[in-house]
Predict the 3D structure of the following.
Amino acid sequence: MIELQNITKKIDDKYLYHDLSLMVPAGGRLLIKGESGSGKTTLLRMLLGFDFPDEGKVMIDGKKLGLENVWLLRRQMAYVSQEMQIGRGKAESFIREVLAFKNNRYLSYDRSKVLTLMDDFHLAKSTLDKRLEDLSGGELQRLAIIVTLLLERKIYLLDEITSALDQHLKELIVHYFCSLDDKTLVISSHDAIWHDQNFPTLNLGKNGSSS
Amino acid sequence: MEAAPDISVLRLMAAFGLLLVPVALSVFLKMGIVRQLFVSAGRMTGQLFLVSIVLVYLFRWDNPWLNIAWVIVMIFFACFSAMINSKLSFRHFFGPVFLSYFLGAGLLLVFFNRVIVNYENIFTARLMVVVGGMLLGNSLNSTIIGISHFYESIKKDNKRYLYLLSLGANQSEALLPFFRDAFLAALKPFMANMATMGLVSLPGMMTGQILGGANPETAIKYQIAIVLAIFTAVTISVALAVYFTARRAFNAWGIIREDLFRKR
């Protein structure tokens, strides 16, 4: 469960959010709409403790996000953003490296699981042997998503993940995430395809926000 | 072999006469570098002249403590000039860079003098001051390139860094790929240089030794050893500098501080 309580944040004397409150229950969905610069990304980063409100509280699973729990709470969340350089070297080595992080040791590398996910996202098997710097934007985007899915997080924060993809891939990804009933999804996008899902929507505008 | 003949002041003036060519070209093409050229050439002449006086006395007295102090002064100036050419903030980086450089180059200097040359008095001016200068002059720039690359790429590829944190990486796990890249940035140009040494360029130390009357065979051995020592000094200094600075460069949330770079 995600809760924002009376969040206010100013950038250069302009309100990005003014007294913004909202709640997304476990397994719920939230779509954040707004032009670029309206604070969509900042809102997602605030949930992860990468950015901070001037006033107000961020609550994850009923706990106020703070220094004492941020590293733990981040592990409840998966964060994928658009056009992200995720690393260098072979794709498979990258996945192995992520699963070998101390915090992820309880998971083991299961190649067949990775291949199933790659199949779900229409990525060729050979992608695993390619180098990350040789992958196209769309391939990289899907690989970044697959890595987060392997970590089995409860909350997915998806920042414009479909905007650079073609229609066919957009549908594929939207469809996949909509089928994850037990996951909490917070999506920032100006893609019509997400709007058609009739998720609860937050509109970030120029003068404060409304929901 | 005999030592190289001295150059008379008059003949040295002929070397300055060479400057007429770049000056004429600068005036002709309106490059606007004449002033800067004279300042740079003047500084070089003045600094080298002063150093020659210092060296005369360092060699005459040959006091180990004085020699060590001179090496520390050299490190200080080397740090200063290398940092001016980077965007790193002096407040955050000067101390750690100085210390890591002192340890990295210092260790290699002692190793070179003790193990490789195996000279009885390793603090003698001939080894300490001359080899020290060689080590310092050639490794500090690569070290600074490595450290700046580390912090600049974390700032530039901040999404990648935050993505790694969100994937469950702890601070050092998220920094590791950037550390790897920084090492490559510092060492790769050096390796390329090493691979063409002798074919494309005759290194300065070798030239100096041969002019000074040394057997080319001896000069080559010194050159090989010093290049390897420089390479290792860079490796150690980059690693230590990142280690010394990383803890203070990020806040408790794991986010990189804003004031690591100088504003221009």
Notes: Residues 216-249 of chain B form the longest helix (34 residues). The mean pLDDT of chain B is 89. The radius of gyration of chain B is 22 Å. Chain B touches chain A through 19 residues (CB under 8 Å).
